[in-house]
Amino acid sequence: MTDTIARPAAGSAPQAGTAAAAYDPRLTNADLAPLRDQTWGSYNIFAFWMSDVHSVGGYVTAGSLFALGLASWQVLAALLIGIGIVYLFCNLVAKPSQVTGVPYPVMCRSAFGVLGANIPAIIRGLIAVAWYGIQTFLASAALDVVLVKLFPGLAPYAVVDDYGFLGLSLLGWGSYLALWVVQACVFWRGMESIRKFIDFCGPAVYVVMFLLCGYLIAKAGWGAIDLNLGAVQYTGWDSLPVMLGAIALVVSYFSGPMLNFGDFSRYGKTFAAVRRGNLLGLPVNFLVFSLLVVVTASLTVPVYGELITDPVATVARIDSTFAIVLGALTFTVATVGINIVANFISPAFDFSNVSPQRISWRAGGMIAAVGSVLITPWNLYNNPEVIHYTLEVLGAFIGPLFGVLIADYYLVRKQRVVVADLFTMSKSGSYWYRKGYNPAAVVATVLGAVVAVLPVLAKDVTGMYTMAQYSWFVGCGVGFVSYYLLATRTTLMAREVPA
């Protein structure tokens, strides 16, 4: 391999101009080529994470941790430790794309080969389809609340047993499809419009959550805040395994945007700006988010007589139509924002990477949108047990991809990237392997996914339930170690060179 280090000057990306003209058209289109300009600052990254954290899915997932039998302070600790791990890993995966200016699937060509990169691209794309559907469903549930409040006559149509199809009510179908169209329209306008949209969404949810928290405090008083919610089943050392499982769940929840964070870090002006945005958007932002979850949830007990961890359900209890509409619409808009960013943009790049000349960035996104309806996502996220199972399965497949990418860039390649070779089918290219696939990466991914997903599928077997909670970590660890060993100590990584 050549030792050329293709690294742009600070604040810029490799120029796509004349260099891009020499790229193989089978691997290139305008969206996949290195960026000409990188314009995102720390605030843009911060706003991205604000929207991600404060989506309805974020609150529902955090709220589901209370069902584990932990005290509130233990849930808070699990949330913060988990997000700390996410912060460290996001910085690792951000650097290669920020340096080269290319999205996640193109960066994967370094490890998997110029054609083999379609394997992680398709896996990540399909997972994004699932998440896109889930987040759209959660946002549509918030919209249902608004519609029923404004038009009480619609209430019967919100009952699945009376007016339901494939597990979703008639009103739910209407809300889901309406948001489906809205998201498609925002996405179609392009990346700059999306950036402006999420810059607004994150702060908007903060305002509503603080207002909601203030309303509950005014109703119940400061003394009503109780950090011991629900039935605490685990104390002392008995709580440690459960807390570790909760930490793993947090990492699994963010594993999707964490894996393809390069799709966004590529827009960063500098890696330092991306790192600052991650610091503000993850540990700092998440601390405030976690406190809001705990305080708001604790106040629902004295105010409403029961523990409510879904903020939309909490807003629906307010005796003010204006407050309900404002709150629910804000959560809907915020969830739409992060859904477009985390689960529309990713498959857009991923599916485009499969056939750059036939599938544009927009076409890739629309493929994901159609697929999100077909999987009936409301059945994947309708109670805490199903939520945890869904996250564990997705984590089992995402973990190995992350492990392989990080091992390749930092240990095998020593942070050396030849950008031009990411876009060539020439056998003399740095990332060409036999038939375009690197066997070391493929074997490591399959091995990691199999080892990680088996405990999830066999939860009823003794000992498997505990291991299933760590599916992302198991898959990542197995993928990381096995790829490093195969890539550095065997002949599997031998490239096909011209005679």
Overall pLDDT: 80
- Write out the CATH superfamily name: Hydantoin permease
Second CATH tier, the architecture: Orthogonal Bundle
Q: Beta-strand percentage?
A: under 5%
For this entry, what is the oligomeric state of its chains?
single chain
CATH topology: Hydantoin permease
Number of strands: 2
> Helix segment count?
20
Q: How many domains make up the 3D coordinates?
A: 1
Supply Rg.
23 Å
Protein described:
Helix 2 packs parallel to helix 12, helix 10 crosses helix 17 and helix 17 runs parallel beside helix 20. Strand 1 (164-165) and strand 2 (168-169) form a beta hairpin. Residues 1-21 have low confidence and may be disordered. The chain has a single domain (23-224, 234-489), classed as Hydantoin permease. Helices cover 66% and strands 1% of the residues. It has helices at residues 17-21, 42-53, 56-64, 72-100, 104-107, 109-112, 118-150, 170-188, 191-220, 239-259, 262-265, 271-304, 311-316, 321-343, 345-354, 361-374, 384-412, 439-457, 464-468, 471-489; strands spanning 164-165, 168-169. By secondary structure, it is an all-alpha fold. The longest helix has 34 residues, at 271-304.
Overview in brief:
This protein has 20 helices and 2 strands. It has a two-stranded antiparallel sheet. The chain has 499 residues and is mostly helical.
Keywords:
66% helix, disordered N terminus, mainly alpha, 499 residues, Hydantoin permease, globular
